[in-house]
């Protein structure tokens, strides 16, 4: 059987089990130690028994043990970078890549070329902080999380990807006291506590990183309430949030930053996903 035939067969198997067919390529790349293009070049080659066996061992878990493919492989791709992930960190999401992209774009527009102090609160795997530091060397990034286990993963990612992020452990704004930032970003846990969540997510990803109080807004309230002293005169604040929270987010911005422009931006699916606050002279 060729690689291509094998992949088709496994993709069908995934779909028959109501799983993502995209997991097949991710897993095969991982087993072969190849990138997508290199794997594609092998599509006509006969697939080796050893590869088939290794693949099946993990694939069976994916199909029947309700585990995310990213945890089984141990990595997740974010903004083109391979991040180490395990059950102590949230698996980075596509929407968060858009948050990063928007921040980079707004940095160019409003701070272009200047050195800036950046904070990523609730960094988890470190995906936001590390990607920003890699993509924009003028960003000096500090990242925090309450979870020591998550920070261990984030530190490994920082080293693996050759970034220079500084990590701090502690609850919300507490470890950041006395610091000043030009850009402040957070993708805090934001699922309302009693929302029904897919068991693949709820039973595997850290619930600490998923749930944001009764209405999913708990952490934005805590952050916005204490944020002002941590910001420089001109500062950009960026949040990812639930798709149905535009009005609540804008109301909170108005409460704590009444004189500032705030805007909600849609993700590629057309959902209200990010809110930006422009503090000071923009
Ligand atoms: N900042 C990390 C991410 O965006 C973790 C977020 C979280 O744990 N809620 O993936």
UniProtKB/TrEMBL annotation:
Listed EC numbers: 2.1.1.297
Binding site for S-adenosyl-L-methionine: 145, 187
Domain Methyltransferase small: 114-202
GO MF terms, alphabetically ordered: peptide chain release factor N(5)-glutamine methyltransferase activity
Protein name according to UniProt: Release factor glutamine methyltransferase
Catalyzed reactions: L-glutaminyl-[peptide chain release factor] + S-adenosyl-L-methionine = N(5)-methyl-L-glutaminyl-[peptide chain release factor] + S-adenosyl-L-homocysteine + H(+)
Matches recorded under Pfam families: MTS (PF05175), PrmC_N (PF17827)
Gene3D superfamilies in the record: DNA helicase RuvA subunit, C-terminal domain, Vaccinia Virus protein VP39
Keywords: Methyltransferase, S-adenosyl-L-methionine, Transferase
UniProt family annotation: Belongs to the protein N5-glutamine methyltransferase family. PrmC subfamily.
Main EC class the enzyme belongs to: transferase
Boundaries of every Release factor glutamine methyltransferase N-terminal domain copy: 19-74
HAMAP family assigned to the protein according to its UniProt record, in alphabetical order: RF_methyltr_PrmC (MF_02126)
UniProt-listed GO biological process terms: methylation
Binding site for substrate: 187-190
Job description of the protein: Methylates the class 1 translation termination release factors RF1/PrfA and RF2/PrfB on the glutamine residue of the universally conserved GGQ motif.
InterPro entries, per database record: HemK-like, N5-glutamine_MTase, PrmC_N, RF_methyltr_PrmC, SAM-dependent_MTases_sf, Small_mtfrase_dom
